[in-house]
Records
---
Amino acid sequence: MGVVDFYDRHPINEEQILAALRRQGRLPGRVTPEDLFDLDQDHYGGLPAVETLAKRAAIGRGSRVLDVGAGLGGPARFLAWRFGCVATGIDLNAGRIAGAHRLTRLCGLERVVRFVRGDATALPFRQGVFDACVSQEAWLHIEDKAAVVAECRRVLRPGGRLAFTDWIAHPRLADGERARLREWMAATTVQTLHGYRALLAESGFTEIEAEDRSANWARVLRQRLQMFRSLREDTVARFGQARYDEYDQLYVFFVGLVERGKLGGGAFDATA
Ligand SMILES: C[S@@+](CC[C@H](N)C(=O)[O-])C[C@H]1O[C@@H](n2cnc3c(N)ncnc32)[C@H](O)[C@@H]1O
């Protein structure tokens, strides 16, 4: 399955978020950024994970921040709301970008958060225009990770900070398992912790930190599986029972790999 298709049929989507807001009685009416935060974060660890990333990326008031693989824009909105930065989100998926625009307008953050459709391997921005680049659980979908890292370095000002989290492969991850992740979750290639460290160094980043977060991810992912199961009714209504079953099966497989120590997560930061 291609990555655009994967997110076009993802259980977390704009319609599902709006339906949840209606159920909570917040729509119709005035929606605040905080109303969205329980619903719009498509990564592992929720808002505390975005807070940690922001600290690693030295994001503060007025920082110009790029979120690479921004999805529906949850982290970008949170960063602008929490830290007073100006955020740009880029994503390959047109539906994600359209949804990100609408949700941002809905909660009144459109003056400080904007979105652009584009490819992380060829960022449509001039050199040195950002103070920080962040990304969460997006680069697993991108084959040419060296290009993404180089592009982040190019668009960061000298001294700017990159902070991201992503899947990492452990030695026992078998070729057949990698193939299933590619086929089912559009996880094109999975880098190792040391592989990422080397890519960052080759691109000219300094002060590189690479942390293995796999033990924490196992717990977070078990909770996430339950969260996807709690969305069953919405997912079946929108994509059908077969897609719900397929997604559940692939997620159980994915969480199993993390629990068995074959796959995990890394947190990285570096200076341009
Ligand atoms: C797991 S979602 C994460 C979304 C967001 N970071 C969040 O935490 O809510 C991964 C996102 O990466 C995007 N993506 C995948 N490949 C991409 C690429 N080459 N360029 C830009 N975005 C990409 C997908 O479309 C998807 O929206």
---
Amino acid sequence: MSVVLITGCSSGFGELIARTLATHGHRAYASMRGVSGRNAEAARRLTEWAASAHVPLSVVELDVTSDTSVREAVEHIQSTDGDVDVVVNNAASSSRGPLEAFSIAQMAALLDVNVLGGMRVNKAVLPAMRARGAGLIIWVSSTLGRVLVGGGLYPASKWAVEGFAESLHHQVAPFGIEVVILEPGSFPTPSTSNAMRAEDQAITDAYAAVPTPARNRQLPTDGSYQPPDPQEVADAVLEIVQIPAGQRPLRRVVGPQHTDGVPAYNQAYEQLRQHMAEVLRRPDQAVTWGPASDRR
Ligand SMILES: NC(=O)c1ccc[n+]([C@@H]2O[C@H](COP(=O)([O-])OP(=O)(O)OC[C@H]3O[C@@H](n4cnc5c(N)ncnc54)[C@H](OP(=O)(O)O)[C@@H]3O)[C@@H](O)[C@H]2O)c1
């Protein structure tokens, strides 16, 4: 049984992940912002479900953009159940519109949720994980953050997630802490309806005639189309949590749509990364971190 903190549990994958982990006996802290405000109904729904299903799930307030909110949530868990064993950085916002049409303030706000939000949570749990020499951080990225098909603010933020998560992986692995980057393809969740819209309409209009892969997509209308089930993502998280420590993969792709070739890409990337690491170990490639005067 692990103590698991999941962010963004008011809907979509987050809610399913919390329910799935709790159903399998893990102590699930289903966090969300606005527990007594915007998400009061979602919080009530999950709390009532947990009570009727007799599963160890609690809803906790956590806004990933607030240092105070993150700290208070982690302190609450520590004082109730001890240290957090597993974090699932799931909370994020998607975006709609060409990159140029977002203000810098909008870009900063989206990056604050999608990228720094996860880092806020990680920084709150890492000291205890390092002290114990154990822990698991699962970061929900996207195959769109690996392969920038049409580009955009959201895919760019997920590319940044990949960078932060992988950097963390290399740096915390020596402490016995694992990082897993979960890369879902496309699933029907509320994410698109909640997307941040680019605020400059004139620039958005200027891009309207530019063809994008998604704009030309036509789903079959004869009833043959079966949308992928978001539960697949929750099941993948459960599987990762239950893999014995030290054996978890760095990346895990999940889903039938928009995932083609991504596992092979990840494998090729990993081979290249290992090659680069070999090269950097050669004496003639040594990187010197001392003051500039030492390097002359
Ligand atoms: N659906 C897909 O096809 C897909 C594919 C690949 C990856 N993903 C990723 O999967 C994750 C979950 O998305 P989803 O598809 O399940 O969409 P979703 O239902 O919209 O879930 C996003 C969650 O993030 C929360 N959130 C946003 N800002 C927050 C903040 N400041 N603090 C705390 N929570 C915040 C939302 O809460 P509020 O209700 O309060 O806004 C919501 O619960 C995201 O990381 C997304 O990028 C989704």
---
Amino acid sequence: MRPPPGTVVCRWADLQTTGTVLYRVEGFEGFVILDDYLPRGYVDACPHNGMPLGGDQEETDYQTREQDVIICRWHGASFLKDSGECIGGPCAGDHLEPWPVERRGDEVVTV
Ligand code: FES
């Protein structure tokens, strides 16, 4: 189940440092990535097969080295940060499921 609005996901400074923050509670897996100066949240389930994007190495950085797109480590699907649209790979045209978040002061919270 999704955490309720106002739930603290992470510190803003931590997202700026890592670029990706994974969020795990029982029954829900999500992640937040830094898109320039905005946090973007998505449910951590690839449209291709429903697995978390980290792959079998349980990678915790969900962006390419250039930090221009989100990447799924299983089969290389790539997604736009701002819309979650898959622009390459086996699920092209599908979308990540949005998980709305915003920055409030020093924190990133659900909305
Ligand atoms: S599970 Fe993400 S590309 Fe296959």
---
Amino acid sequence: MSKPKKLALHTCCAPCSTVFLPELIEEGQFQPVVFYANDNIDTEEEYDKRLAVVREYAQSLGVAVVAKPYDHQAWQKAVVGLEGAAPLPESERGSEEYQVNLDRRRARCAACYDLRLSQTAQFAKAYGIKVMGSTLAVSPYQFVDEINAILLDVAKAYRLKAAPCDLRDRYHLSIERSRALHMYRQNYCGCEYSKAEAESERQVRKAARQAAKAALKPGA
Ligand code: SF4
């Protein structure tokens, strides 16, 4: 069997990496090198917290980890003009307002993917790694088509090979595996806007649960 090729794997967080690293190691075609580049994360404390879990998990599998120094200003510059977005309650799906907010969020996330994947390509180039991929395409909360299109464009620009994927059907497995390993699981994507959106969406769900409970009360 030929020697596995190195793969620069942009890694957003440890839970998502649980459905990449074991399989990549077992298949033996690639030798993953985890590249942690997530300037999108709102605070350095949170950046370090997610990184510590990534390191611990990757090292338990014998996978090397390289982390980019945190620079949230670089991310803020990348998303200038695309800040914020109102929450997207499911009850409003289909409305014009929902679509406007969704489009705005998609544009901001695309700029965010582009930044992180470009940094991954630069890392791969600097270390002579010829293939790049990302763990981003696990979460159903991400725009996976955008991720893969940007991955292909960035790889082409840097004359690298891309390994696009869509692992949203394995999201449940990432939850199971990370829970079994007692991993820290963040409850928002990373940026300050995603934190506010996630909180607001939780409030909407809570209000809906309370309304449903109240409706079930005798005499209601
Ligand atoms: S929601 Fe996530 S992917 Fe989108 S801009 Fe914020 S951190 Fe980036």
